Amino acid sequence: MVDMSPRKSAVEARGTRDRIVARGMALASVDGLEGLTIGRLAADLGMSKAGVLGHFGTKQALQLAALRTASEVFTRTVWRPVEHLEPGLTRLRALFGTWADYLETERDSFPGGCLFTTASIEFDARGGPVRDFVARLFTAWRRRLAGEVRTAVAHGDLPADTDPEQVAFEVFGVFFALNQEIHLFGAADAVARTRRALDRVLAG
Amino acid sequence: MVDMSPRKSAVEARGTRDRIVARGMALASVDGLEGLTIGRLAADLGMSKAGVLGHFGTKQALQLAALRTASEVFTRTVWRPVEHLEPGLTRLRALFGTWADYLETERDSFPGGCLFTTASIEFDARGGPVRDFVARLFTAWRRRLAGEVRTAVAHGDLPADTDPEQVAFEVFGVFFALNQEIHLFGAADAVARTRRALDRVLAG
DNA sequence: CCTACCGATCGGTAGG
DNA sequence: CCTACCGATCGGTAGG
């Protein structure tokens, strides 16, 4: 571990780094991970550019740090609260609820909308570590969601001929639509529409 | 009409403008409408920056021109081919086909994926004319799609209690998911998944 | 963690 | 449609 400053302790440096990442997530949510510039981030935080960049080395490392932390927020606010629930349809529906809440209420962390959706659109036609990381996140969550569906089928909560991957594909589509509804249209009835859409996906 | 060049006729200038817009659409599809820079566009076309910008005046006008032309491509390749078909479920299903084809095969025009989806994500947390134009496009297409659903209901092709706006919301979600499937994942079975998803949306 | 700096590129303009 | 240029900002580095 390299001490980044002669003036701040390791604990203080860690706190500064966390503040940078948190602000970076919010800025990237609005302007994209490329639109997230070191200069604006520094000005926002009252720091020098070198002070910001010193914690990461490169812009790409900062982008990856923002995505990694955002994925921890997602895990904490969407997956974790339903982990203790009874496996099957109960947990699946609860998951849909925390997911919709995440898109609706995480305005402080992601004022410009879901950072993963933004990053997916922004990097899907490029190569490199950021694109790979985004693809891995979506793949992992798709797989996990399909697993929840499979469990619900095994419990007899959903028809035996349900295709878990197909359901997962459709559920992601619904949440993409919800994200647009909230941020492009500012629609008030977005969550009601989403709930109906998800019910239909499950009804098969 | 102001002649932009002492050396090119108005017809030639128009052709140049068209080439700029076509290349701009492709670049914006990959790097976004902000990532579309005058300098790269000029270098790509073997022109000077001033030569490019002279046709539009500002970058924002170029962005709007790219979106407007892209919307004409969309109308020509998605809506127009089904206009002559029998109104109702037949036309609706044909529309889904041209739409999926547009996402799958318009790789020359939009190598980085659907420009409207990109623009929606990129501008949804901002103000200004570009955001407004994108929102108007989506609103118009949502309304038109809902109208097709309403027609299908009126023809007895879909249940009387079908909610056309709800169906339109879900259909857009499916196409967002298809766009990701193609460009982030490069998935081969994306169209089959999409067809199944759309069937389920219509089955209600 | 800062100041001071680097070359490259940004959107845009003047003038022809 | 071009050359030549503007101030601002980009990511990043040197050195402390």
Automatic annotation (TrEMBL), chains A, B:
DNA-binding region extent: 37-56
Segments forming domain HTH tetR-type: 14-74
Stored Gene3D superfamilies: Homeodomain-like, Tetracycline Repressor, domain 2
One Pfam match: TetR_N
Superkingdom of source: Bacteria
Keywords: DNA-binding, Transcription, Transcription regulation
Alphabetized SUPFAM superfamilies for the sequence: Homeodomain-like, Tetracyclin repressor-like, C-terminal domain
GO molecular function annotation: DNA binding
Keyword Metal-binding: no
Protein name (database record): TetR family transcriptional regulator
